[in-house]
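Re: the 156-residue chain
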Amino acid sequence: MKNYVPVTDAMLRDPDPGDWLMIRRNYQAWSHSPLTQINTNNVKQLQLVWSWAMNDSTAANEPTPIVHNGVMFLANIGNIVQALDARTGELIWENRVGPDLSNGQGAIRSLALYQDKVYLATTDVRLLALDARNGRIVWETRIADPSKSTATPADR
């Protein structure tokens, strides 16, 4: 990814109108965009420009895409993280961190973006930091004992 701009504390406190840097968009949890290009007069003219198929046959995944500087970061079931060009829908990078749970217990609600890292809490209780430019794992740590999770042994 060219020209990545690291996410700062100031950006998180006062996000650019075109960005969606965290779940519910801001610390006040407004859950709406301040952009005004679409309004009641022109909303009927909207057309689908692109779509992206999620890795989910169970309908259990409900991620909040994170958008920064024209790049959409998306979490998929199976601990898959993707970066897409938000304008075209083209895949920039993908990391299949795993494990791939196929029973619907692998849903991820959101990612975190800070500085030059994408943070992912995996379904097998690890916390990972990925390089936002290319998706490579920068570091990971186990945050709990997976043997004490509510998942069944077949899910681990």
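The two ends are 33 Å apart (CA to CA).
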